[in-house]
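Q: Sequence in, structure out?
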Amino acid sequence: MRTIMSLALLGSAMTLAACEAQNQEAAEDVLAMENDGQAVPANGGMEAMGATSTGAGALQTAALRTADGQQIGTANVRGELGSVVLTVDVNRMQPGTYGMHVHAVGKCEGPKFESAGPHWNPENKQHGTQNPQGAHAGDLENLTIGQNGSGGATLTLSGIELDSGQNPLLDADGAALVIHAKADDYRTDPSGNSGDRVACAVLGGAKPS
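A: Exactly. Output:
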């Protein structure tokens, strides 16, 4: 009987030792991956501001500035499967309703932000969701700013990718979010009679050649 119990205890000890060895090997594998730069940290390896890694789930945030360089809020884009989510948060702007569009070039040079180019329009349509020949891919809803100087919007741009596919939002020269001086009428080409460009945020920016 004692011999049988001893053999049983010895077998259990050997089983525990084997499990510990397997756990140690797994831990060493994870450490090796981290040392090789293959492990993915909890936040996906991206910073909240100026992330360079894009694609589904990626986030890129940019300062929204007026022509004199004053920051009045932020804009960010996040890649989803088959769409891009754009979030705008403004906290220092005069109350009113303003046109807001995604422009084709990731460059915001004052005073008129003409460097941002025309509206992002890869399918060569006309401006406005109420235009029979529209709309531009970069046409957005108007932005409403309340009496406290704050406002914002979260919009989903469907059928596009952030930095992949045939017409990605963040192509070689990036894109920009531009706020205009007046409300967009959603129909008049090329910009809905929305007036001057009064604020701009770089989305992506030009990629090095």
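Residues 1-39 form one domain.
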